[in-house]
Structure formats: C-alpha cells, structure tokens
Description:
This protein has ten helices and no strands. The chain has helices at residues 2-22, 31-38, 55-65, 77-89, 99-108, 115-131, 134-144, 155-163, 172-180, 195-211. Helix 3 (55-65) crosses helix 10 and helix 5 crosses helix 7. The protein starts with a helix and ends in a 15-residue tail after the last helix.
Amino acid sequence: MLGWLAALLALLVAIPLVLVPVYLVVDPISVPMLERHVTGRPVVREWRDIDALSDRLKASVVMSEDGQFCRHWGIDVSALQGEVEDLFAGRPVRGASTITMQLARNLFLWNDRSYVRKALEIPLAVYIDLVMPKRRILEIYLNIAEWGPNGQFGVAAGAEAAFGIEPQNLSWERAALLTTALPNPRVRLPGDPTSGLREVAGVIEQRARRYGQRASCVAPDGVLAL
C-alpha cells in the first residue's frame, strides 16, 4: 500500500513538472474544462494570443486579481502572511491567491476550498513563475479562466457571451465589467449587470486607469496602450 501511495504521489508531482515547460508552447486546457468534456457538458473556448487582447482588459484583470503580479515570484508573500495572521486571529480570510496561484489551480488542482489545495498551490505557483514569463502566464490565465455561466472559458468566449464582440479595443467600462465575472461567472453576468456589479466595475476601472501600468510586464515593449 505504501508503495502504491508513493507511486501515486510521484505521478502527481511529475505531471506539473513535465507539463509546465510543455505549456510554454502548447495551449493547455484546464481541469474544469476537462471535467465538463468528460461529463458531456458544453465547453466554448477560442484561444487568443495575448497581443490580440485589449490592454485595458489586461490592466483591469491584473489590478483586480493581483496588483503585484509583475513584482512577485508567483506568490505575494506579504499577502499570505496577512492571511495567516487573520486565520490565527479568527478573522475572515480571503485566500490571497495571485493570478499564478489561480493558474496553478485551474491547470492541476480542484476548485473546492481547502488548506491542502492552498498548500499545493504555493509551490506550483513558484515553479510556474520560474519556468514561464509573465506574458505567457497571463495569456494562459485569460484563455482558460471560466468566463460565463454555460461553459464559456477564456475571455474571447466571455466577451462574445456578454457583449457579442471580440476582446479587442474594449472600452474601459466593458473591460471592467468583464473582469467582474472572474470570481463567480455563473452568477456575475457582465452583459446584464446589476447595480452592485456596475459599482464593482467602477472601482476596478478607477484602479486600472490610475495604476494600470503596473501590469506593463505583459506588454511587448513594456508599456500598455491604455
């Protein structure tokens, strides 16, 4: 039994070690996408290169999901320390997930919250950041994140479902509204936003307009066209 467990553990470790370098050149699918394929549910995803996506969207996503994305090595150490302090103090915790940690979860783990999953996300995120440039990390994230209530994955499918448009040259309003869907795309509908969702989008837009160049590590020349 111990031998089988050791072999299973070795396999689980080997899968991301092998696949992360492969994903430098191969466009991956996520665990949620694979699960829907296996269970016969629809999956809609059209890959878009990062340079074919709106810079306003990139700035909105980074400033909403991970403002230190261009500065950290896969994990935001100060945010994680704050989460640990809140946990031991009995205060609510939010997860402190970076974009790279979310990518690790989508590619290799599961969505149900647990401390085990979080503990696995951390070394995976560090490894992904070590192997992949920031541009590729964000490109994969934007193309595999769940972005709609009916199996829409990636921002191209999300923009089509919400607005019937391509994710290029988005207005600030639409870029921010698309970003609001990321925490819960089955409930948050940017194409039919509630007043509360518009308020959240307004905060994201304001932050991205002011600090969006902090995401400039994903621009080919180091400057986003905002």
